[in-house]
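The instructor's notes for this session suggest beginning with a concrete chain rather than abstract definitions. Hand out the sequence below and ask the class to guess, before any prediction is shown, which regions might be ordered.
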Amino acid sequence: MWQPAFTADQLAQTGLRAISRGHMRWLQPPALSRSSAFASCPANNATGDAAMKQVIDELERRRGGARLGGGQTRIDAQHAKGRLTARERIELLMDEGSFEEFDMFVEHRCAEFGMDKAKFPGDGVVTGWGTINGRVVYVFAKDFTVFGGSLSEAHARKITKIQDMAIKNRAPIIGVFDAGGARIQEGVDALGGYGEVFTRNVMASGVIPQISLIMGPCAGGDVYSPAMTDFIFMVKDTSYMFVTGPDVVKTVTNETVTAEELGGAKVHTTKSSIADRAYENDVEALLQIRRLMDFLPSNNRSGVPQLPTADGADRIDASLDTLVPDNPNKPYDMHELIVKLVDEGDFFEIQEQFARNMITGFARIEGRTVGIVANQPLVLAGVLDSDASRKAARFVRFCDCFDIPLLTLVDVPGFLPGTAQEYGGLIKHGAKLLYAFAEATVPKVTLITRKAYGGAYVVMSSKHIRGDVNYAWPTAEVAVMGAKGAAEILYRSELSDPEKLAGRIAEYQKRFANPFVAAERGYIDEVIMPRLTRQRVARAFNMLRNKTLENPWKKHDNIPL
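After discussion, reveal the predicted structure:
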């Protein structure tokens, strides 16, 4: 059972002076016009002490009841499932001692189905604010021990109150989900509550970072609020998301599926792309969110955070000179370049298990956050397909919302051909990435390490779609397509002569498979040595720090969704 830090007797013995110094400041009585005379009367003092003791006793009783949520038995059941309680999660997430809770004593007002006899203070959600690494953050955490964390009208009002405060004060908001959907007993009142929450998700989008942590069930209406936030993180084996559960699926479609198979962390990080990352347990997830927050600005006007670093911008890494293999068909790991390029090798990857031919994530250069978009030659040769395009497009748009500069690392042989891609909407999905880069007004630095072929060259933040500084390594190949494919089209009549065709391929390779044609036309600003990449990129971002670019006024855009 929860025990208060101070007993009622201890608090009473400290007197109002000690209480006013920080224990319970809100308990100080209002100033009285005859305070000195009142204080001189022993009888009145004794009466006042007794009355105050009663107030403190009642407060501590109510606080203790609220902190117990649905009771110790349900708390134990939560722990037995490998999950922390709502308050334990908040304690780990926030800086020590910084969390201040709001609406601890709120209860539902439903009297249907015997609900008037089942009331718990807080009504299934803990809300408030605190700091993460010294920066103000608002938070709400669903309490599964109270009505399974289900949403009621009062529950929703607590969340919307915190959302409104976060928007007004331009600070990030984090939602911790562990709930079973709407509270059926409240009917349309619960559904209306969802609508109020969803509306604020939309109003906050692009204004403050919104982060969702799925740390248990998240079903029905509960899934749509996270879906409209910027990032979703899950916990392996203990969390899942779906609109309709396995029982409903069985009834409607006759499919037999488990909760994990339907909406577990693996499904949403590898197939649906709903979740951005999954962690082993609650503790790891919460600590990683604390790490992420250091990369994110507080709002869309605050500018990116800057952390001190001992990693000099002029650092030279000679190993990068041999990163790209001599064989143009041999892969290499783009992560190696990223880790060697950024401050202290610190890279927070987003959606690392989905569309692995594209890398997205946050890093720092000279202590300032940058967003990184990179082709991954190790997977499908770094080709652009539907999944990779929409993954990168969403990330680019987030960075543009919050003025996070973009670094694009290019090694792309083109778009993935085939009926599966065409039938799956490759044209529209590829257009999303093109649109996102062209629309973005943040500083954009691009580096071509090897292949930049066809339309994919244009899409990957080229000069033609408003890239600011575009570099290339000497190993770069900027062309419509690879030399072999080009020669076979250009010299179709010579296909029957392998020797002659080989000469044509070599000729095309020499003429076009290099960065110099593009550099001659000003599409590449400079061909740089790989070992100097960090230095040149850092200088470029410094030069672009005061960039000002405004798009034409519009109510909103119409990105090809």
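Then share the key points. The CA atoms of residues 286 and 297 lie 18 Å apart. The domain at 318-476+514-543 is CATH 3.90.226.10 (2-enoyl-CoA Hydratase; Chain A, domain 1).
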